[in-house]
Request: fold
Amino acid sequence: MKTFIKTKEELWEKIDVDKAIAIIKITPDLHYVEHQHIKPYLSSSFYNNLLTKYQDDTASTDELELIELLQTASANLGMWKFISKSTASKGNTGIRVTHTDSEKSAYQWQLKEMKNGYRDTGFYYVDLLLKHLEDNKLLFPDWTASEAYAAFHSHFISSTTDFDKIVYINESRRLFTRMKPTMEEIELFKVKPLLGDALFDEILEQKKENTLTDQNKSLLDKIQRAVAYLTVANSIFKLSLQLSEEGVLALSFDALEKAKLADFNMLEKLQNEYEEKGEGYIQKIVDEVKEINGETDSGTYEFNNSGKRVVKF
Reply:
């Protein structure tokens, strides 16, 4: 089972961890998080090729710089997964919490804080990894030719950082990833009808190639703001629910974890605030597209019977 961390010394270098932990114990978790949370952003071929070079000690200087970021992400995310199992052991009588007369297991809230720390740091380095790739994409042609690169640039907002500049999400990649399906719906069913297929694709392509015209740069700013605000507005209630084989579950935190879900009225107020901001930028897009096309009547924005504003042509 190959990962980007081969030795315990490499693990110690990336994270503050008990040196008694054998690398073989955490390797399955490193393998899992690399394939689940890192490989999809690189593409299978680019990831596998980079891993082979790392294992064979044939990586170039540029590749080693990328691997440094990948290792830090992997180590932290691996510990995030491993830490729950590290306080328990399996035996003939079942699963037991491990403790001795001189050492006791951490409290649940301590484990939670520790796990969150590893998780947040790990995803932060996933973002740094992607930023490094984007900033140095000429050095990694295999990545820019991959389906992962195309997917990275398939939205008007590509990164956690860009989203965070408009709506504060604490640069959470997990939250950004959870909202992506909703963001795609906003782009396809709200923005694309306003721009038309040709202009929609043109702005995305120019954004990817960093060749935006002044006109499209102005439109992109409004599009990104509309998409961010409306994505959050349409995600607020979804984020508190989870679909599972057991049905729809309401997510919550107990008092021990010192957090609880906002009440319905607060969520509704926040949703209305972001929806109003998003719709305001949708109107700005309509006005700018009309001006570009020299139109005066088409593309106006009206209210429907439910009080929601809709585009009319």
In short: The two ends are 58 Å apart (CA to CA). Strands lie at 88-91, 94-97, 241-244, 247-250, 300-303, 309-312.
